[in-house]
Predict the structure.
Amino acid sequence: MATIYSSQPDVGAAMPDRRAARRQETIDEALDHAVAIMTEHGVGALTVSEMARRMGIRAPSLYKYFPSLRGVYDALFARGLRSQQRAVRAAIEESERGATRIRIGARAVVAWSVANPALAQLLFWRPVPGFEPSPEVFHHSVTEMVEVQAELAEAVQRGELAARAADDDAVRLYTIVLSGVISQQMANQPGATYDTGVFTRLTDDAIDMFFNHYTPAGADHADLGQ
Amino acid sequence: MATIYSSQPDVGAAMPDRRAARRQETIDEALDHAVAIMTEHGVGALTVSEMARRMGIRAPSLYKYFPSLRGVYDALFARGLRSQQRAVRAAIEESERGATRIRIGARAVVAWSVANPALAQLLFWRPVPGFEPSPEVFHHSVTEMVEVQAELAEAVQRGELAARAADDDAVRLYTIVLSGVISQQMANQPGATYDTGVFTRLTDDAIDMFFNHYTPAGADHADLGQ
DNA sequence: GTCTATATGTTGATAGAC
DNA sequence: GTCTATCAACATATAGAC
């Protein structure tokens, strides 16, 4: 297998990999600029022309990397999902399972969202007329919700939450709470960080509210997984 | 004072009122088309040209009624606020005060939002690059929150909710819950009605969750204001 | 208050040379 | 894989005739 560490990079079988890597670098750079544009001027203000302008190339050249503007949005949606997933996984990595992990994961999602408002809007809202993520990209998004449900089931098993918390509706209520925090923060105080945002500061409060709603019978109001 | 019921409508002092009324009708018709365009193609897809096209006039003519495209958005924001307020006031009109009124108002906000998705997106999100409502329009939006806070204080007074429910943070948590329900519904199942939406169906559940979070000391988990 | 005409700018996308 | 050239369309907004 050819390696990108080859000492003779321009020869023979090493080429295709090098080409592919270079190509991927260009794509990544293009997406970096796309995120910057959306952050500065709004998610709906992205244009192929502006991306090309910032890269110092002509617009037609970008069509070698993306089939269309929608293709760019789709790549951005996928990148957003991956980035968010990485952030969450890094946060929960060594945490205890169950309620604790749910809380830490929730904090991570909110923190990632305010740190990446452009991508977050693309994931949580539908701000671009006519754009919907392609099925294969959207599939990852569904996968993520399955993991949340599994963790809720674990919390039930541990006696931290009532049995109802393993239902589909509980997952929905969880997403309602998180997307509420994120939406209100992005819409009403866009510049703030996780610590300074008047809505993001309520993340733990919101999670408490969610957990209390599923307090197991006989248990007291415990502040789970603090 | 001249009346629009004047039997001699084209004479003298009656004219300015008739002119003003006719002008307002044209503006309203223009905004109707604007809402239709946003509903069909997304909030960000509104153009002066398309509005004119649907009205059967030329684009320049519309500039006699609106100073710019942003002016149209501002008028739409104001219309959305008024419409939502009317819906809520009609719903709570004869209800008991306190927790009951909060619950009924919340249902009304969610129902109005899924029935008016375009205007709701304009109010709850910031989907249009560079558009922010003008200060005087936005002021009404703040007024509304003050009313929510007053009703929460009333619920505290009645012993329905704990004292903390009168804090600023409680109002924020309330808006988090509502905007969460609305955001998730609009983003993930846009076509649904209040009754068929998998998220809007959880409105009462979400309000229960909110109320339980502020259960007064000594009180049991009551389903307030059902 | 409507129109035509126009200035001025933008975009997404393709064809084809190099 | 980059470019030039170009298409076809669309936009916001203004000037000025009627």
About this structure: The first helix of chain B runs from residue 14 to 41.
